[in-house]
Design a protein that fits this description.
By secondary structure, the protein is mostly beta strands. The chain has 2 domains: 8-150, 6 Propeller (Neuraminidase); 154-234, no CATH class. It has 1 helix and 19 strands. The chain has one helix at 202-207; strands spanning 18-24, 27-32, 37-41, 46-50, 58-66, 73-80, 87-93, 98-99, 109-111, 117-119, 122-129, 133-140, 145-150, 161-165, 168-174, 181-189, 192-201, 210-218, 224-230. Strands 9, 10, 11, 12 and 13 form a 5-stranded antiparallel sheet that branches. A hairpin with a 3-residue loop joins strand 11 and strand 12 (133-140).
């Protein structure tokens, strides 16, 4: 079955930017430029605003998934709360419409973007720890425990896209630290990565008349959605 684009109504009109922070069960968590959160069903165009927690004053990242059952939807908001600028998180129960108490400090992390990837009860974020070590930060939603997952040493923090394929977490990244060739890495277990395929080479990009490409997302059928940077002639 092929993919097709569907024009869906937008629950926002005046936002300068909108970030897809997570998806699960056909619902999308949107974060607006104002840091407001919206749960949105793009098929029915029904949406609900998520009340903000009172205790986070600097937002860093968001997550959206479910606990033991699929109707136990959870929104995770990570941010700075403590005076030492370390990270904490709060959890919003969609069913109960309530926020949990703030977690204890979990250290200092720098997130690649607002959004997360949800798979098999875990939320995953790409992070830098202490401004140096590239990691994946995993949160077990049921147990509310954090886990740091190592990534290959050559993985570039800014140019790696995370997603899922055939029930596994995966990364699309430059091969060997070079932008001439990209590869797909599949996580067989936490911290155990297996290369699956090579991506487009520099010669392929030249034939496409573009300077570069970036993977936007990984479709579960094994296809990559790429953003092409077209050459501009002056």
């Amino acid at each position: 079955m092929g993919y097709r684009m569907v024009k869906a109504g937008a629950p926002f009109k005046d936002a300068r930017s909108v970030t897809v922070a997570g998806t699960t069960n056909g619902l999308v968590l949107l974060v607006l430029s104002s840091a407001d959160m919206i749960l949105y069903n793009p098929l029915t165009r029904v949406f609900k605003k998520v009340p903000p927690p009172l205790y986070i004053y600097e937002n860093l990242a968001f997550g959206f998934g479910h606990g033991a059952t699929q109707d136990d939807l959870k929104i995770v908001k990570l941010g700075v709360y403590h005076c030492d600028m370390s990270l904490s998180w709060g959890v919003f129960s969609v069913k109960n419409r309530t926020w949990s108490p703030m977690s204890e400090s979990i250290g200092h992390y720098e997130f690649s973007d607002y959004g997360s990837t949800f798979l098999n009860g875990f939320l995953y974020w790409r992070v830098l720890k202490d401004h140096s070590s590239a990691l994946i930060l995993a949160l077990d939603i049921k147990e509310m425990t954090l886990l740091e997952i190592k990534v290959p040493a050559y993985t570039m923090f800014d140019d790696t896209t995370m997603g899922t394929i055939n029930g596994y977490l995966c990364l699309i990244c430059p091969k060997g630290g070079s932008y001439d060739e990209y590869q797909l890495l599949v996580m067989k277990d936490h911290g155990i990565w297996e290369p699956r395929l090579k991506g487009c080479s520099a010669s392929t990009l030249s034939r496409m008349n573009c300077d570069a490409f970036r993977a936007m997302c990984i479709l579960n059928v094994g296809k990559l959605l790429l953003r092409i940077v077209t050459r501009t002639h002056f």
